[in-house]
Amino acid sequence: MSTSVAAPPTKSASPLRTPRKKHNPGKPKRSLLLTGLMALMVLYTVAPLIWLVINSTKTQAGLGASNGLWFAHDFALWDNIRTTFTYHDGIFVRWLLNTLLYVVLGAGGATLLAVLGGYALAKFDFPGKRGIFAVVIGAVAVPGTALAVPTFLMFSKMGLTDTPWAVIIPSLVSPFGLYLMWVFAAEAIPTELLEAARMDGANEVRTFFQVALPLLAPGIVTVLLFTTVATWNNYFLPLIMLKDPDWYPLTLGLSAWNSQAETIGGDVIFNLVITGSLITIIPLIAAFLFLQKYWQSGLAAGSVKE
Amino acid sequence: MRRTTSRILRGIALVSTLALGVTACGGSDDDSDTKAVSAADIKAALNKGGSITVWAWEPTLKTVAADFQKKYPKVKVNLVSERSGDKHYTALSNAISAGKGVPDVAQVEYFALGQYSLTKGLTDLAPYGADKLASKYTAGPWNAVSDGDKVYGLPMDSGPMALFYNKKVFDKYKIAVPTTWDEYLDAARKLHKADPKVYIANDAGDAGFTTSMLWQAGSRPYKVEGTKVGINFDDAGAKKFETVWQKLIDEKLLAPINGWTDDWYKGLGDGSIATLASGAWMPANFETGVPGAKGQWRAAALPAWTKGDKASAENGGSSLTVPALAKNKELAYAFTEYANSGAGVATRVSEGAFPATKAELEAPAFQSKKFDYFDGQEANKIFAESAANVASDWSYLPFQQYANSIFNDTVGKAYVSSTTLADGLKAWQDASVKYGEEQGFTIEK
Description:
- The complex is a heterodimer.
- Helices cover 76% and strands 0% of the residues of chain A.
- Chain A has 15 helices and no strands.
- By secondary structure, chain B is of the alpha/beta class.
- Chain B has helices spanning 7-26, 39-48, 61-71, 85-98, 110-118, 139-145, 167-172, 181-194, 207-216, 236-250, 262-270, 282-289, 329-340, 344-350, 358-362, 364-367, 379-388, 400-405, 407-410, 413-416, 421-438, and strands at residues 50-55, 75-80, 105-109, 146-147, 150-151, 154-155, 161-166, 201-202, 222-225, 228-231, 254-255, 275-279, 297-300, 318-321, 442-444.
- The chains are: A mainly alpha, B alpha/beta.
- Chain A binds chain B through residues 59-65, 145, 149, 152-153, 156-157, 159, 161-162, 236, 239-240, 243-245, 248, 253, 256-257, 259-270, and chain B through 1-3, 8, 12, 15, 55, 57-60, 80-85, 87, 90-91, 94-95, 98, 100-101, 157, 159, 260, 262, 265-266, 269-270, 279, 281, 284-285, 288-292, 316-318, 352-353.
């Protein structure tokens, strides 16, 4: 059955090629150089992942005694995963839940604020808008790391350091997300549509939720993805804000485990650090794959206008 | 306790240090804490109960804290660990300069004590009875925690140095274990010639190691008297160290690997790093970090600068201190005393810590303990003898943490360029002097 389906392409090769030529009036041939560069890029991005997967199957002894790019004699992946979740009374689970909390409240909140702010800036006229524009653009350029120490001193005065709020509140502000929503809202929501809604007697809240929000969905997913990745990977802010390991996110926790190897009498657990890292990136990959669908279709939907 | 210092963290440490300096200038109530606290006061506090926060990464404190709470059920010990070294000090300095979130007890390594004691960051524990504990400790650690009649912490562990060597490698090439640093140089040449993959040691420039080596060689580069500080690497002891180590560097006999990295653990495991001159706490790290090389390693006395000389030095080691801003000082002292002088010591030693107390060091059970990792060797005998031979007149800078952070930019160059160790040490001296003057210290040259 499959042979009959597989056979036609050779016959229909020429009719297939003609429409493609229409689309690509340039060279129909593939560029060997570009393909090569692409392959290198793939290798560059995938190699660390492969390394991570391979090495999370090794014990601490195996890590020292084997080549980094191939398996050791002992296969300890399941053992490593179990130990990662149970080590130090299962603190890894706590760190995982903390990270989830920071992502849900921090990234979720940041997205919500960015949507509200971006919509307002794109669709309403008010005095000082140009000033706000300058501030937002300026804020995009300031790296979060540079603000971490002043933020720490401020939070310390308010008595909020060493609490989850010290991580969540700064995460709520995403200048880049706001800018993205602003630009997206300006393009994706026709002003006429809002005017029509107002004419029909909808108040601003209802207009926002029933007319604007559905149109903004692809943009929201994009911002959510960006803020989620930023919060999930955030290291420096929690590093200076938190002291109590019970409130660590995964990034800090893994780094603390790693630094046990630099401590007199410390338990050296590179195998758990590696396995923990693998576990840490899985939810992020899952989120990316899941949201990518909406993201891609969304971007396309936004760009095509009839 | 070395690590590759992240520049950002270093920057923050610097900011915090500056903030500490300001606190020092502003703090005029020097005598607020000098009234004696009697044993009865401490006992009353223990009976009354309360909670204390302890910032310490020392792994054996987990059991100690549990035991302490069992003994004093009304006291809650909140042990905050998981963080050490630079990050620990950054957090501590930040908390002190912010005046909030300061722990009741903090672990501070000996080299970093001066930084906190001089800026009035720590409670003088002498009025609490710590001054009566001097005779319990070996000279090196006690000298590190005390300053005149003030006591800024209780020694938790110590790191008398020893030479750890891979017996399998030495046996394979039929090379004798060196007893002097000259023999060490010879052994390094033979080993590297026999197998170019094998190095006698790793060293890519380590402030803690270098200062310990200078200490053993009789060099006393730092002189500290309150805010008067002398910094001078130009003495006979330093020359001894420079001569031997310069040859090791020039002839490329040292593996260019930083300590405490995964490369380092790998090198210790596969025999490409044949010796390690380090503190007596090292066996615990061997056991968990290099499990594959069990049975291959042994301990020996640290090589001498002249044959028969027994002088040794400390490497690493830390104390428990009570910050000046601690809320519950009586309980904090009680815990510190319990962990580092009382019943906690035995618990900690049984879990692999190396004590700073004479009684534990001299105990027959301790000395005759057989180390499975070292194929049954009674290594504590070597360590205890080393502890007894540590000269006690060494001092670190009141800003040693900063000085160590610039080590790689100065002395470290000798390892990677044509700069000599002597020039590197001179550059380190100059940079330390400059910083000290900026911080308001009187520098005697």
